Amino acid sequence: MSIKLVVLTENRPHERRVALVPQVASKLSALGLDIWIQQDAGLASRIPNQAYLDASATPPLQIAASLPELLQNAHIVLAVQPPAAETLKLLAPGTIVLCFVYAQREPELVKLLRDLQLTCFAMELVPRISRAQAMDALSSQAALAGYYGALLGSTQLARILPMMTTAVGSIRPAKCLVMGLGVAGLQALATARRLGAVTEGYDVRPDTKEQAESLGAKFVDTGVDGRGEGGYARELTAEEQQKIQAVLTKHIQQADLIITTAAIPGRPSPKLISKAQVDGMKNGAVIVDLAADGGGNCEYSVPGETVQIGQVTIAAPFNVPSLLAEHASELYAKNLLNLIGLFIKDAAINLDWDDEILAKTVLTHQGEIKNAAAKTLVEG
Hints:
single chain, alpha/beta, 8-stranded mixed sheet, 13 helices, 18% strand
């Protein structure tokens, strides 16, 4: 019997992505999967139903509008955001669900996944090891967010980024400060540099200095080492925060454009820019806060909105990768393909829990919460 794989239409606000694109469908079908797509799943990403039907998948993809028909006998379900509770309740125990979850924000959903005995792979849990890079959806989406952040900032400014020489004189290049040098921050630095800005980068992890400088940016060194576990920054002490702010204030208030990218998956975003620092910024300066989904990195940010504080503009859009839905969906679909390839062998499902990637990415399985942090959160 073939393995039925279902792709759901996203129904959460601000979500335009889809978990499968036509060019990846044929690669999934080559694994022995029978692919079903919920009607209009790709429309928000500008992918019409016919594009799926035209994909070179064998057997051909099928499209269904009815959830009961779609999910009947489903073995694997793909989504970007967590499916609705009513959808999950239509799945048989043992069905494999792949999506972003963020257990800290969704404890009731984690309980439901456990109680329904669904096997859920949470895409934000993919370990950051070399072998898992092709499955690292956080990184693939963050790269797009960083690119978009630089472009958004350039359109909000009342000036240009590059130096320009004209018949009446030269225009100085804009100064761009990127705060948080993970995947998104480094891509923002690279994009701002390509657009002609003079760039600076800051991170509490001093080992990012070399990466920033390799992109032509100056690294802002505060003398504080804030490295934590898993490649993320740790929580800073009050004394460390004061030391950092004393150094950063000068750079913040000299910048024309600031892009902040400091986000911890599933947790509140750290505040990097205070109201006092914004109040001292240049007239016409712009802040693009890419951490709005976690509450934002700036004290003045209003998640989901663009606001004017004096003469400073602060843009804090939700779900930035979704604003580039075509390529975000393509990269995410490839991340899923590579993860699925770990447990589909000879057209059969084989969950090898000795595989580090599968063992660390699984959230729930056979009525248990397998991730230690999520288990503590939900069950105490």
